[in-house]
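User: Hi! I'm working on a homework problem where we have to compare a predicted structure to a textbook description. Could you give me the structure for the chain below?
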Amino acid sequence: MGYAEHNLISGESITYRGRLHLIVLARAIVATVLLDAIAVALIVVGFSQKSPSIYIWAGILLMLVSGAVLGSALLVRNAAEFVITNKRVVVKMGIVHKRTAEMFLHKIESVGVDQSLAGRIWGFGTISVHGTGGSVESFQRIANPFEFRRQIQEQIGVTTGRAAALSN
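Assistant: Happy to help. Predicted structure tokens:
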């Protein structure tokens, strides 16, 4: 159970989950490939010498560092939660330093999507949720940002439809 499940209010249920796009791993993957290439070169040099050397240990250490770099990037991606419920939009990012944003659907005025050319090609973008009173919450590198926006708008429509039906 994640942050959203632990913080559901009475009568609230999750209707959609978004994610950070895999693009957030790009730098970590490039760094891992480079570190592992250097590590393999160091290990090959170490084995070409007559006795085990510092090169082998340095290569092993670099492989451990590359694993830590990739592992930490995966943790960051998996720790991010983007949830739409029947009452709110709930976002939590971070592991040690958490950033949360929660906005009731009836307080949302608009939802914007900003996508670069790379974002359009690979399917990621920035979501900006504009609330009443001028508050704006932006979240970068969201996978399928137009679907996320559509889900918010759909829940707002359902919520306002229920409210209109109750007032009649």
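For your comparison, note the following. The radius of gyration is 22 Å. The mean pLDDT is 91. Good luck with the assignment!
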